[in-house]
Amino acid sequence: MFRQTFLRWRTESALTKNKNRRASIPYRHAQAVGIIFSVEDKAKHEEIKHFVKQLEQDGKRVSVLEFLPRKKENYEFLFDFFTLQDLSFWGNLESQSAQKFASLPFDYLYYVDHEHNPLILHLLAKSQAHCRIGSHQPESTAFFELMIEQKGSLKGLIENMLKYTQNLR
Predict the structure, then answer these.
(1) Alpha-carbon distance 112 to 132, whole Å?
(2) What are the phi and psi torsion angles at 59 (to 5°)?
(3) Stretch among 47-51, 157-161, 165-169 having the lowest mean pLDDT
(4) For site-directed labelling of 125, which of 45, 97, 111, 115 has its Cα 20 to 30 A away?
(5) What angle do CA 135, 71, 143 make, to 5 degrees?
(6) How far apart are CA 97 and CA 81, in angstroms?
């Protein structure tokens, strides 16, 4: 309980202090792309792998970070990950993978979850990404430059994220 309270304070502070220049560039000029998501099941893992492949076929360098909840399987150990155990009592995220990921200046950072996770929102607040893209939730607008309204499937969310960023000019 205390950890989540401290995390919330640190997230609010990071949002205020992060003065990184945010802007979207045309998709065709984007080179570095990040994907962050919460592990749910094998089907989601496969969708993320397919998304990575699509981005790589478009000539993008893709980095992926996953949040691995308790009692969830890390399929194939393909991506870097962090867990709740990486959150200290004082609300510090002590994962080297997560800290490195937040420091990378992605042209686009896709957050591929329907429900927002406080640990991932903390990373988004600290992120050096130029354009952060995620599913629409009114309470999370400060974390994103582009939000996608998608109530359907994960595949639909990914397709819409890709469609809208590809149309950025």
Answers:
(1) 11
(2) 85, 20
(3) 165-169
(4) 45
(5) 25
(6) 7
CB 69 within 8 A of CB 84: yes
**Residue 1 reports pLDDT greater than 80:** no
Domains and CATH numbers, the chain: 2-19+27-166 (3.40.50.2000)
Q: Which helix (DSSP H) or strand (DSSP E) does residue 121 occupy?
A: helix 118-126
Helix (H) or strand (E) holding 32: strand 32-38
Report pLDDT digits (tens) over 5-42. 999 999 999 988 888 888 889 999 999 999 999 999 99
d(CA 165, CA 8): 29
Residue that the structure tokens 């420091």 belong to: 103
**DSSP tag of 117:** P
Helix (H, G, I), strand (E, B) or coil at 167: coil
